[in-house]
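Researcher: Next entry in the queue.
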Amino acid sequence: MAGAVPSNLEHNTRAFAVFSLALADAFISSFEAKFAYHFWRPWTAIQNAAAIGAPELQDSTWLSVIPTPSHPEYPANHAVQSAAIVTVLKHFYGANVPPVTLTCQGASCRADICPAAVTSGHLDDFKALFGLARIYGGIHYRNTIVVSWAQGEAIGQNVIDTLEERFPDIRSKIVGQQFVTPKDIEDITGLSEGNIFAGEFLAPQM
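Model: Structure for this entry, 206 residues:
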């Protein structure tokens, strides 16, 4: 995104920071809800359909194309997270951008479910890809994906609104800034492989 939509370093840094906050909140919100509702997966429902009064739907040999995760079905993590991320990216870069390509190189990527590379200039296409792949893969229901998209959008917007409310006109309040790379930290501290406490927040920084 930063390469597709030319922006200065400050803008990109702020975008990635808000991106990270929204992603973290999406994870927390999604897993909290999963263990509040404990909704069963399609795998469980199809193999036990007779027990809930739908014997015509039962197939005791049915398995999902994507291995079924060992946590509850609702909400859908990928749909919540992708919607939160896309909401943030649209805020900083716009809904329609020069075409960018999303690739999947992991061993779990299934070409028969979705292509290994997708190129689009519409960010909502990527949100749709992550959600629909979970339906086609057999691990989520369509209603869960739709509701999870709304959940993720609300999370992303809440992060944006909260930061703007708590830190209005933050640009004028910055008295200095310094960008330090892992190599800089190695040179300053003499430690190899960067700062061993990368990401640490001290009390004055909070």
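Model: The longest helix spans residues 9-37.
Researcher: Noted, moving on.
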